[in-house]
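Below is the data:
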Amino acid sequence: MKVTILDSESSVLNKFIGEIRDVTIQKDAMRFRRNIERIGEIITYELSKTLEFNSVNVATPLGTKRVQTPQKDIVICSILRAGLPLHNGILNYFDDAENAFISAYRKYISENEFEIKVEYFASPDLTNKVLILADPMLATGRSLVSVYEGLKQNGTPKEIHIACVIASTEGIDYIKNYFPENTKLWVATVDDKLNEHGYIVPGLGDAGDLAFGKKL
């Protein structure tokens, strides 16, 4: 798996990462969602450089111009509900992509033990397409692997890209064992630690709750 960590170079991305982490700024749900969306746009721009492009003629009012446009066989899959703002950021750039949505959540067996439940699944055929998995927080990696296992029934993509905002080192190491070797992981920033509950430290908290409000 090829891993690209975007904050290894200084850019405006770091401002957005700082704001989604900041306990005072992240309380503004609209701003939090927009910053996740912005990060998704930046990830998508970098990701787009690795795709296949086609040369086409575009008619202008004064003539024609040959331009390079990216391939159109792209499917964006977000993991509900936290993945929706990130999904929107990717979709802003790949606006003609197909879309898939999957719910995956932790069902706790005890205080520190949980299993991943996947209950909602809607996806087009993935055969020979470019699959982009949008999951803002790659903590243990178990949700992402469960989603990928579920998607396999809808065909084999020719490329897999994973887009994350914050990942843990442990989570990255875990998913490497389950995804094809040529999978590309695009992550805005990486934290080294998980706490005893499997949450990223320092992380930012619960991305779903910050974006859409607390759940029962």
Notes: Helices lie at 13-21, 29-48, 84-93, 142-151, 169-175, 207-212. The two ends are 36 Å apart (CA to CA). The chain has a mean pLDDT of 93. The longest helix spans residues 29-48.
